[in-house]
Design goal:
- With 339 residues, the protein is α/β, with parallel strands linked by helices.
- 36% of the residues lie in helices and 17% in strands.
- It is built from 13 helices and 11 strands.
- The strands form 2 sheets. Strands 5, 6, 7, 8, 9, 10 and 11 form a 7-stranded mixed beta sheet that branches.
- Helix 7 packs across helix 8 and helix 8 runs parallel beside helix 13.
Length: 339
């Protein structure tokens, strides 16, 4: 998906604005993750033109930055990929802890292992990865990952996975009791065997068009994310986001600035703008994922009563940044699986 939003501003208005960054701001974010109304509001306030490209996996975002000269000023990877990007020297030190946005961040998300000095990132949203079922196609329980990884008759040939290993492998590890980032080849062989046995029942490995695939009943179960499932359910699809007893895979996406970004000042200004309480509330209501920054609860659209997807009742284990040896095993599992 690619969205391009360009708004002009009268020169006199731009000149009247105090100490604003200028020019063009290029964002590379999870597809459909940033409120278009907030993009427009930021452009009108600053005179900065904002371009937005979308990605559907952390792997895509990492590859883009590793290639160099990405042309982007902001990217929004998940926590373990923030760590990888920092370690590989792919990000600008933006002194995040000194930004206005940092003061809006819930303390539990500050100085976390992926950015212990809070210099490189500001949290955007957090949530879980699990699986969603179409209740017109599947009537059974959804209280275990066994429903998804070892499907019964109702789900045979009607399952879809994401196109990348990141969270799928993590979920398989939760089900099997294998630690995240295991370097044990025998343990990872169990993960491979589980996914290989599931493969004949997988109709698609895809991270695109999930809402239509699961909402229409083209598949009966799909690996997916909490807020996306929520929005599709509220749009009228008869679907349910599972709460497996083994737990869900947790994620937290953050704003980061790629090394060599052309407009760091505008990037920091945009991040501060998005963290303002009014704007953060609007973003929460649009994106339908939990907010790690302060929002106005009186204006929050989603609550435990109407959005159980966002308030898990099972353990949540956040994806980790693996050692090279562990990551090689994950890659091998996935590569061998798709051969």
């Amino acid at each position: 998906m690619k969205t391009k939003l360009i708004l002009g501003a009268a020169l006199g208005l731009v000149l009247a604005l105090p100490a604003f960054a200028e020019g063009t701001l290029n964002l590379y974010t999870w597809s459909d993750s940033i409120s278009p109304d907030l993009i427009k509001k930021f452009e009108e306030k600053t005179g900065i033109t904002v371009n937005v490209d979308g990605f559907n996996s952390n792997e895509d975002a990492l590859t883009k930055l590793q290639a160099g000269s990405s042309g982007y000023d902001i990217v929004t990877p998940s926590q373990h990929f923030v760590k990888i990007m920092i370690d590989q020297g792919l990000l600008e030190n933006i002194d995040a802890k000194d930004m206005a946005a940092f003061a809006q961040v819930d303390d539990k998300w500050k100085n976390q292992w992926w950015d212990p000095t809070s210099e490189y990132s500001i949290p955007l949203a957090y949530g879980t990865a699990g699986f969603t079922v179409n209740r017109d196609q599947y009537k059974g329980p959804v209280d275990s990952w066994s429903v998804f990884f070892t499907p019964g008759a109702e789900l045979k040939g009607k399952i879809a996975d994401l196109a990348a290993p990141d969270e799928v492998v993590g979920a398989a590890e939760l089900f099997l009791g294998v630690p995240f980032c295991s370097e044990d080849k025998a343990e990872m062989k169990k993960v491979y065997d589980l996914l290989k046995a599931q493969k004949p029942d997988v109709a698609a490995y895809s991270s695109d068009n999930i809402e239509n695939r699961i909402g229409s009943g083209e598949v009966a179960a799909h690996f997916w994310w909490d807020g996306n499932s929520l929005k599709t359910r509220l749009d009228g699809a008869n679907i349910e986001y599972a709460m497996p007893k083994e737990g869900l895979v947790g994620w937290l996406d953050s704003y980061v600035v790629p090394k060599g970004a052309a407009n760091v000042d505008a990037a920091k200004q945009f991040i501060d703008f998005m963290a303002e309480e009014e704007n953060a509330t609007e973003q929460y209501n649009y994106y339908a994922h939990s907010s790690p920054v302060k929002i106005d609860l009186a204006k929050a659209k989603y609550t435990p009563e109407n959005a159980p997807e966002l308030f898990p009742t099972v353990p949540v284990t956040f994806s980790q940044s693996c050692s090279p040896a562990a990551q090689d095993l994950v890659t091998k599992v996935w590569t061998d699986l798709l051969q």
